[in-house]
Amino acid sequence: MKSVNELFAANDNHEDWIPLIELAAREVFELMLNCRLTVLKTAEATALEITSMVGLAGKLCGVLSVRCGRRAGALMASKMLGVPLEKVGPEVSDALGEIANMVAGNFKNKISGLSEGCMLSPPTVITGTDYDLHSRADSPALEINLLFEGMPIVISLQINS
Amino acid sequence: MAIRALIVDDSSVMRKIVERSLLQAGLEMSQVFQAGNGAEALAVLEENRVDLILCDINMPVMDGLEFIKRLPEVENAKDVPVVMITTEGSEAHVVQALSCGARGYIRKPFTPEQVKEHILPVLADRS
Q: Rounded to two decimals, what is the model's pTM?
């Protein structure tokens, strides 16, 4: 396990963190939703109407977000709750919030020194696509395109160093 | 023997997942109480006796660490074992939780098997 200082020093763009974010996401989906994510080589032009965000503050400042479509969000909630898809209701936002929270927490736990020095905010979930997100991030977002049950999801980390 | 459990987490989805994990671990539960933060949990315990508490750390109003520090104030809850279930995974958090009185520590994400591994010894110690 590399330390946070080693990882900060190794790469100003933090590209080394992409595999860790991907691993953190894979573990959350495998353990909590019992399904495997696959890598999507190129981003699909699909409307991702649900955005779940968790802020990070401390040794690492930024925002980790999970974006997906409505059907993917409902299916995630269905799998987390263990109920049929048609019985999922307003729990989708709560479920997506927990997923972002667990991915962010699992990611920071993989970097020595970051876990205890970085706090997570409560999750915020936005539904819809007609918005602009302004953050203090000063480097390009680390973005991973994945497929969940054949549907695209995007996990990104915007860092404010 | 059937147990009464209290699950404390600000996510209702996570509370349901924890309850399901307890069932999948083979625990027989006569009653499951839920609370969205530490203050709600203390209110539940003022009125009810439980055998086991599973508690998140990061919650609004009253977090999990403050909650377990306040537990001895509640007559019904003085000797009830608490197991933390949280995304906070550092050794510092584990040590802090255990020093506050937690009897176990489960990191999210988790499997029902991990829940079983942590809960059964805690319940065995109690009986």
A: 0.91
